[in-house]
Design brief:
Blueprint (H helix, E strand, L loop, with lengths): L2 H20 L8 E2 L1 H8 L3 H13 L3 E4 L3 E4 L4 H25 L2 H15 L4 E2 L2 E5 L1 H15 L5 H24 L7 H13 L3 H19 L12
Antiparallel strand pairs: 1-3, 2-3, 4-5
Helix pairs in contact: 1-3, 2-3, 4-7, 4-9, 5-6, 5-8, 6-7, 7-9, 8-9
Length: 229
């Protein structure tokens, strides 16, 4: 196999394993053993190790001494810290994006929202899970909103934190259903504020959007909340 073919193969396994984690087919806290994964995805142990290393960097997998790799567990403390970081950094990046973004950025945001609105949210055959297609469209929409920010360091930090939050957001659907929440309306309101160039309102909407999921998930994590703040 050529080097480019090997890289493509590894990328494919990375996407498959990532989709299985985000889709709940590999659950939070589950141990990820090299032989099992190599057999499941029909790849070498070396390729499996490379993919897991990438997923650790993305925040979807963790590694612990004497325990090896596992899907990131749900934790109140981790979720609280992640939410605080996202609420501060991601909302700041959106504010800068609204202030600095150009017309092509606006067009990209509108196009991403158009795709998100028309992508099935849940699979009728598995209604407790988000569809992989919607998850991809959702990530693309939020990335498009942030892309107007000219500060690449802040943008990279915001996107990294959002990536880490994907697992929690997926499980907010499967473990904390909330029929009264209108996620589509929240996304529409975000887009409207962005297009109106209302940086303050867009920033506050995104903070609310981020923290709402935390409130929804607080009863889902197996550990106890930190009542000291």
């Amino acid at each position: 196999m050529t080097k480019s073919g090997g890289t493509t193969r590894t990328d494919g396994i990375h996407q498959a394993l990532r989709a299985d984690i985000l889709g709940g087919r590999l659950v939070p806290g589950e141990r990820l053993k090299f032989p099992d994964l190599a057999d499941r995805y029909q790849v070498s142990v070396g390729a499996t190790r490379e993919v897991l290393t990438r997923l650790v960097a993305e925040g979807l997998v963790v590694t612990k001494a004497h325990q090896g790799y596992q899907v990131r567990p749900l934790s109140h403390r981790d979720l609280a810290e992640l939410t605080q970081a996202r609420a501060e950094i991601e909302s700041l990046v959106l504010r800068l994006s609204v202030l600095e973004g150009d017309m092509p950025w606006e067009a990209d945001a509108v196009a991403a929202h158009h795709l998100l609105e028309r992508t099935p949210y849940r699979n009728p055959a598995d209604p407790d899970r988000l569809t992989d297609e919607w998850s991809q469209a959702h990530a693309a929409f939020h990335h498009a909103l942030l892309a107007g920010c000219a500060n690449q360091r802040l943008l990279d930090a915001a996107r990294s934190l959002r990536q880490e939050a994907e697992l929690y957001r997926q499980w907010s659907v499967s473990m904390g259903n909330e029929p009264g929440r209108d996620v589509a309306a929240e996304h529409r309101a975000l887009l409207d504020a962005v297009l109106a160039r209302d940086a303050d309102h867009a920033q506050q909407l995104l903070r609310d959007h981020i923290t709402h999921t935390t409130q929804l998930l607080i009863s889902c994590a197996p550990d106890q909340p930190n009542r000291d703040g």
